Amino acid sequence: MSSGRFVTIHGHFYQPPRENPWLETVEVQDAAAPFHDWNERITAECYAPNTAARRVDDDNRILDVVNNFEKISFNVGPTLFAWLERQAPEVYRKILAADRASVGARGGHGNAIAQVYNHMILPLASRRDKVTQVAWGLADFRARFGREPEGLWLPETAVDTETLEVLAEAGVTFTILAPDQAARVRPTGAGDWEATSGGVDPRRPYRWRGPGGHELVLFFYDGPVSRAVAFANLLEDGRRLATQLRGALGDAREAAQLVHCATDGESYGHHRRFGEMALATAVRQLETDDDVTLTNYGAFLAAHPPTHEVEIHERTSWSCAHGVERWRSDCGCRVRGTTHQRWRGPLRESLDWLRDEIDAFYETRAAIWLKDPWEARDDYVNVLLDRSPQRLDAFFGRHQRLSLDPTARLEARRLLELQRNRLLMYTSCGWFFDELSAIEPVQILRYAAMALQYLADLGGPRLEDEFVRRLATAPTNVPAYPDGGVVWKRLIRPAVVDLRRVIAHYAITGLVEARPDDAAVYAYRVQRVDEAREAYGGTALKVGHVRVSSTITGEVRDATYAVLHFGGHDFSCAVRAWEAPRAYEAMKADLLRRYARYTLADMVRGMDEWFPGEGFSLTDLFLDERRRVLASVTRATLDKYEETYRRIWEENRKLVHYLRQADAPIPEALALVARHVLSQELLGELDRFEFAGDAGPLPARLFDLAGEATALGLTLDLADGKAATTRMVARALDAVADAPTPERVAEALALIEGANRLGLRYALWAAQNRFFEIWNRQTEARGRLQPLGAVLGFRRGDGAPA
Fold first, then answer.
1. 294, 79 Cβ separation under 8 angstroms
2. Do residues 414 and 457 touch, judged by C-beta distance below 8 A?
3. 259 falls in which pLDDT band (50, 70, 90)?
4. Counting Cβ atoms within 10 Å, is residue 383 exposed (0-12), middle (13-18) or buried (19+)?
5. Is the torsion defined by CA of 509, 514, 520, 524 positive or negative?
6. CA–CA separation, 785 vs 65, rounded Å?
7. What is the per-residue pLDDT for 189?
């Protein structure tokens, strides 16, 4: 144990809200391929690996698997954490468990700290928005971690005096800033201030005192170490990271000193591949060094209160040399040097104008139903965390002026959602990068569109035209989208969703796959009240009456629809509001009668008569389902040709083998057919083996097919076998976990070795994690388990996993 020499490594783990505002889900993002979206990709590269980081020997064999979150200080942004809870629950649970472990290990002081809710740049926000953003971030932390946060991370470490006052008023103990954000320091109680000139000593905490008597502790991270982690090659070797952290500790100093670095958590695995492994190695090096103590900010502060005071530079951040201009002007901070950012100012000004218009409307209208509209907004985060009827009742019990009927409650919920989207449109990533038409600014503009839609639905002023006029003063770097107005018209307006489109999506996809009577369609529930369906000759008709409810606001509407499938990718759907049972029954009977005449032209005329106006087609489906339906249609088409491929192969199989034996080239057309048919046969055999539930080695037929392909010089495409192989490996390891008998270990070993021989991919990372759990739980079976560990990449013998 050290005497006064401490080290902390902080990771700021964050992703902006990427959800489609109308659907409350992240849609497919092709730039993140081969993953579904950027959240999924960065989880695979960073968040998940940091919950199970590998420590390896010089031969790259695994020695240990550790949860880095147990050892480092960290914050996870609320918008990212909410996504992890839904889409990566195991990662979510491991992060929470790591914090609980750190609370026990560090005297009640957990590694996790809170974060401002959706990464708004607080010095550019109104005081009211600062209060809400901090309140939401703290409430989100309490709900997830089950304790009070000691610290809170400021987005981009952007700070001013008012921001620190809001933190102190909310009960926050400390925050972390960059070293050049300190302006003057002095020992506590001393008279004279000393200018830092960018050279504050980062090894001690400082007490900040506001003009109103508020106090907060500020930690200033070590600049050189942090920059080396984020932008240099320090993460190529975790031992170098440990050495540099130790080297930043001073020798001749009586007081306790804390060397700490702070970077984006994504440095550990996403920005720097295998960065989580370097972090795990560095942590191990520090933990085994008797001269230093690895700790977190809360634990250090409890034992070593500040002995110095500090004043800050106003409106500064860690990622803009010009203060906070990166989020409101063409200051020169950018990713690519060939672009301008003259769009940043007009974007900020347009959103500020919209904010002021929305807030004036909200304050007046919400005051009819809520005792204090702004207190209600601050508390609304508790509904966002749990939209159950019980939570809603409790919320309105605290804030309603009088008991609200369903219509009044619906309006109040719309008003609060208006404010939520208004806050989300200030997420900092919208300004950080280079181009207005890029994914991040488009995302915040979608929140603005959602806010405008709520405003109009509530009977407020129609502001879209004026907003777009202001946005048109923002020039872009892309000729296809010359200004912000064009960006809005081409990228934002077509994305707007209303209930008619939700119903059309439900109706069209319902022709492809069966739906329950009460179906979830993203942020909506669609209840089937009545439905009639007929089909003939590859066509289909469906007519229905549905009741649609929003899970966000509780709004409920009835509607009718008719959808006609002409075959293949050709769908036509029409939707209209519910009128009366008699009108619906007349429409349904007429369309069914027309369809029964087997004349689609008459059927189309009927739909036009009953549903005047623009209809919907396959292109109006939401993106993920649109692609899924198209894949189904395409697969059905390809299946028609599968037998043709097989026939060509069987008729020419002997010829192809003879050509190979005669050292003659195989015609490309025949090689393509052979590769396809052999791949499909092997994958079919694999699926049958999995379905049978057999244990043990893979069937010989798989190796025969693979051997034939090798003899012909063909490389099979077995990518589609990954899911089945992953399931079989997981099942085999589960059997070993239940009873690590020699037979079960041998079966798992044979399966994995066979998959490796065939080149069948499987989720190796997950399999390694599962084996490590078995190794630690079944200690008496380790002798039998070692060969299985070796084939999964673990070290054998005396250096086997600890």
1. no
2. yes
3. very high
4. buried
5. positive
6. 16
7. 87
